[in-house]
Amino acid sequence: MPITRKRVAKRKAVQINTPEDPIVNLPCEILTEILSCLPDESTEVRLVCRGFRNCAWPAFGSRISRTKFDMRSIKSMDNLKAISEHAVLVAHVTKLAFTVGHLSSLVPGTQEMLVYDSEDSDCKASIQMTEVEPEEYLDAELLGGVECFRRHQTYWFAEAWRWCPCMDYMTDTLAVYAAKTQKQGVVNFLAETLSKFDHLHSIEYRELMYPEKFMPLWREIMEAMNYIGIKFARPYSPDEAAMDINGIDILLNALVAGDVVVKDLSMGIPAMYCHSIATYTDPTVLQKVLRNVETLKALPLLDAHFSHHLGKDFELVLTSQNAPKLQELTLVGWVADPGSSHDIPSWMSRETVPNSELAPLRVLKLGHSHGKMIDHHFFDFLSAVGSTLRVLTVDIGFQLDWKQLIEFLVTSVVVSLDKLKITGPKISNPKNSPCDVRAVPPKELLYQAAQDVVVAPKKFDEWLQSKWLPKTPAGRIKVTVKKRLKARSK
């Protein structure tokens, strides 16, 4: 029987109104992935259907993990408290990131820009670097907006953020009392709030962050700088360092007070070397935090103004007692050579403790190293963790002589890696690189250092391959001929 228009319309109506809607029948994992790809403003999508409503919470929890909670902001802390009290959403939050928003008195500060001078005698534009003041590259409205924000911005527990390491050595005054009392108030609040996140396992602290309310104005400032060719260089300010030192100390104490179990921890470390780290927090507090940590990412923390307060009493060696579950360690800003200009403190432990006492590391990542060579203490450390170490990632930069590292890995009878990843410097032109050719190990040697050797990025790999190519006599004659022809043309 032929299908009439009336029958088609009826069939479509049945398909639309049936509870067997295809969106509802999609697996929750697929719906969660769809929601996680939507813009942050599309939170109303959970009202579309039951499928989106039921699967929205994991996506929201993932989005919260990308949110920075400002410990100085009343609104931010109120949002954190509301999330912790939400019966459904709190179960899907596994990671939290914290910061201390601060606008330094030096921002936007004096900047440098390239100036082209066309009045050269040869009628060619000459280039010179010139310092410009904020009044020269920002209009009065933007400058007024920055000053207005500084004067009228209010902060939660304002006195708590006046604390700095110097206060521990000051005589008792009302200012010190107010700072320490309010600081403990922030610790108590965070301890109570974080203890409600039963599925929380990852904590991150991000330093050098501006307040969220300042960001729209900051984007306008950056547009004004880019318009005239200024590449922003953030000026270092001691008050910013004090804010981050204070924020990390508050966060660590709150984790201990709230008995929060953390498996992944990422934060700034003012001093680090191989198996040893030091912070401005009481080492007993840091030890309690690290007792369940499996992955530790130590980032560099600017603290030049307060480093004289950091001493041997603040050092914590990553032993099996202090960090019994630590398996992955990332040191960003590590020092390869203690005698370099970026010297580690003289009081820091260089001698490696026995293998049986070190944390059972399986993955070691070394990023943005300083110094031209690796000293013997570092090789002693690798030997000490060699029985458990399986993956090593090294960012060699432009200066590090990594040939001796490869030679050590090949000849060592203790270290046996499953994977070695070498991350080289970014090279725009592989044929013209400032890398030190003498530091490049032979190709056969490099690929014997581990079962799986990865070289990145692609440009650096291409540069290495070009250095490994055999130089034939014909090739050298060809280059010589080119040089002679070039000299004759001059």
UniProtKB/TrEMBL annotation:
UniProt-listed InterPro entries: F-box-like_dom_sf (IPR036047)
Domain of life per record: Eukaryota
UniProt name for this protein: F-box domain-containing protein
